[in-house]
Amino acid sequence: MCAAPAGRIPAAYAASGRRAVRVTLVATTGFFLFRYGLGLPVAATYALFSAVALGGLSRIPGTGRQRAATGLRALPVCWLLVIAGTCLSVRTWSAVTGMLVVGFALAFSAVGGPRPAGAAPGLQLLYILPSFPPYDPGSLGERLVGTTTGLVLLMAAEALLLPEPPPPSYRERAALAARTAAHCATLLTTPPYALTGTDSAAAREAGAALRPLTVPEAERPAGPGLRDRALAHTGLATRTLLSRMARPTSPGDAQGSRVTAVLRAVAALSAGTADSLGSGPTPVAAHAELAAARADLSAVSAAPAAAGRGGPRPPEFPPAVLRRHAAVLEIADAALAMATAADLAVRGRRASLPVPPGRFWYARSRAPVLWWHRARGHAGRRSVFFQNAVRIALALTAARLIAGVATLPHGFWAMLATLTLTRTTMDETWSTIRLALTGTLAGALLTAGLLTLAGSGTGIYAAVLPLWMLLAFTLGPVKGVGWAQGLFTVLVALVFAQLVPPTWRLAEVRLLDVLVGSAIGAVFGLLAWPRGAHDELRRAAAELLRRAAEIVVATSADVATGGTVAAPPVASCHRSLHQAVILAESAYAQFLSEPTPFGGRGRRAAPAPVDWQAVLIAGHHTLWGSERLLDPPPAVLGPAAAESAAGLGDRVAGRMLLVSAALDPGSDTPAAPVPRLDPVLAGFTAQPPGAPRRYWATVSWLSALMTDLSRIPRTGPERAPAAAGARAGD
Q1: In this structure, how many other beta carbons lie within 10 angstroms of the beta carbon of residue 463?
Q2: How far apart are CA 232 and CA 212, in angstroms?
Q3: Are 345 and 208 a contacting pair, CB within 8 Å?
Q4: Is residue 525 within 8 Å of 422, Cβ to Cβ?
């Protein structure tokens, strides 16, 4: 094929045009083969609609080969849906019950990542189509043959026809970031022991490239499996490592050689991790070297109070040196976590590096357990995945019930309208419906004229079908829902005019069905969480900060008392915060995909703009910092250091609760702006006599949390730009 001149075709039209060519070629080939070649109209219908379902209605992310792989894995599910729809169409009540179960299960499968979420709408259609009369189990074989033919041809076209260049994978991005970390660590071992402006910018850029919403959807490690979890963990650890290196680490003390040894080991392990992500060997020796260097530096900067327990008194260092040691040890911790996560991401359960408990809890779990853990975490009304699944399942069930009771002709069109027009917010649903009805009316008028002029001869419909399908699937995704519905109205008329004798009343039926489906979508959009992710994000963010405050208090108490007093238990707090982070991240991801939320009709308006990403980062920093401080279990601090650490923890936790209350005020609490906090507390500058390295590490952690809290209130629009992104693991 001759390529169009560069810049001649806009990117949006080029992308939709490639997809339209593939869908049109496959759908019309299967339809004409069975309808005119073999005389099997049922198989023809299923071949066409299978290709339209997975190629047009679904939005499976990735390159053609990635979509083909997803489609082939979904083929057994497609067979089960066609079989279930055929068998349950015997009675309206059985078809309705099946729609409720299938609709919820397919919509809730979005918890598995972008690919299941993208395939779900098309899979819904493969149950909807056979669930309508006539009840004809004898045609099941023909239906399965048509479905299989359409899907296999579509997968072949996706893989072979008009391929797109693949974007850099997340592993490649992580490897590049790890090499950047190795370069930065090397710079920190020589004067001036700090990054230059250029190197700092490169580190920020490499870290930003790992934020999931800056990554193509198909490349995001969002699945519940071991490798996806570990790859997301790799990205978070690498970003943490790069951010920690921005602090000066000049080894201006007697133990400078140990600091340099740690940083050199970090550089070696980072380079080895980059090679490992590129399918190189596991950096076992570099990992062991860094672990030993870290232990050596940690022992040297241990508490002078060790002498009180009968141990030798280590050298005492000034607070500035201990702060520096704490910063370098944080760099080492992040590098070790990055290497372990990368090894799990590349080799799965055959990973060679030691896997510490807690942080990598998923490393020894089987895939069904991890899927169950993901589903259980979202099986509640506070999850936007659960809310979306309930909304669409109830809407489709109501549409199937009304279509069956009222015996709507071509009732599956009403269900298709419900499926494609229901949105996550009421405002968006209403706007979509208005455009869809306008487009459908225009398409119905054009259809009526076409059917009246062309009459019952199928030749003209067969000739126009490929051209119109190509036009519909090229313009529809770019021009919007009004154009899409209008063009699709004519398209279905061209198809059914070749299956049954056509009349202009077909356009009337199409308009009626879309009107019924739109009304059902509007009703359930109004009744089921009409504000989408907006309210849920506020509640989830507030809960995240409440759980984080519990961890701050418990961790500070553990550090202060050496683990002898902690209430509530830190381990249970970690589990609660991890769940809160998951729910907040999923709500934030949906929030970014929705239009600006409507302003408080019947509800309180948002009291102030919020940087939601800062909330999520505060949750991650709380988890990671607490785990680092409590591994190994802390020794008892001196009285002054213990009092200072516990007091600072209480004060930071109080600030977290203050922000939490502003994000989600109770029914008896007046709405108020999120308070602007000073990131510097007076206690951060205290220098308790004899304070050990762990005290200074605790102060550094609490200071970072205060910086996160100070960034939560911001000016400007409430919605963060997608490029700034955050999702699970961000």
Answers
A1: 11
A2: 9
A3: no
A4: yes
- Using the structure block, give the residue that is written with the tokens 């399908």: 469
Residue 646 is which amino acid? A
Of 43, 56, 38, 82, nearest to 154 by C-alpha is: 56
Spatial separation of the C-alpha atoms in residues 19 and 197, rounded to whole Å: 44
Q: What is the dihedral of CA 243, 247, 251, 252, to 10 degrees?
A: 180
User: Are residues 127 and 97 in contact, defined by beta-carbon separation less than 8 angstroms?
Assistant: no
| Euclidean distance between CA atoms 529 and 548, whole angstroms | 27
- Tokens representing 722? 């997608």
Residue 133 to residue 141: CA distance in whole angstroms: 16
The C-alpha atoms of residue 68 and residue 218 are separated, in whole angstroms, by 13
**What are phi and psi for residue 713, nearest 5 degrees?**
-75, 135
Taking residue 456's Cβ as centre, other Cβ atoms within 10 Å add up to 11
What digits encode the pLDDT tens for the residues 58-75?
Answer: 888 888 888 999 999 999
**3-state SS, residue 610:** strand
Q: What is the 3-state secondary structure (H, E, C) of 102-116?
A: HHHHHHHHHHHCHHH
Between the CA of residue 258 and those of 209, 250, 252, 320, 463, what are the distances in Å? 32, 12, 11, 16, 78
- Kindly give, in sequence order, each residue whose CB lies less than 8 Å from that of residue 234, ignoring residues fewer than 6 positions away: 174, 277, 338, 341, 342, 345
pLDDT of residue 94: 93
| Closest C-alpha among 55, 67, 114 to residue 590 | 114
Q: Do 488 and 419 meet the contact criterion of CB atoms below 8 Å apart?
A: no
pLDDT at 672 over 70: no
Does 437 or 267 have the greater pLDDT score?
Answer: 267
Distance CA 464, CA 477 (A): 20
Q: State the DSSP H helix or E strand holding residue 468, giving kind and residue range, or none if neither.
A: helix 458-479
User: Phi, psi at residue 492, to the nearest 5°?
Assistant: -65, -30
Count Cβ atoms below 10 Å from residue 8 Cβ, excluding itself. Answer: 8
Condensed to tens digits (0 to 9), the pLDDT of residues 542-555 reads 899 999 999 999 88
Tell me, what amino acid is at 446? L
DSSP-H helix ranges across 348-410: 367-378, 384-405
- pLDDT tens by residue, 244-291: 887 655 555 545 688 889 999 999 999 999 999 988 899 999 999 999
Higher pLDDT, residue 456 or 310: 456
Spatial separation of the C-alpha atoms in residues 493 and 240, rounded to whole Å: 56
Q: What is the DSSP letter of 720?
A: P
C-alpha radius of gyration, the chain, whole number: 30
Note every long-range contact of 496-501, with CB atoms under 8 Å and residues 24 or more positions apart, other chains counting.
496/410, 497/451, 497/454, 497/458, 497/461, 498/35, 498/458, 498/461, 498/462, 498/465, 499/35, 499/41, 499/44, 499/45, 501/456
At 713 the three-state DSSP class reads strand
Cβ-contact 581, 613 below 8 angstroms: no
Q: Report the C-alpha gap between 702 and 710 in whole angstroms.
A: 12
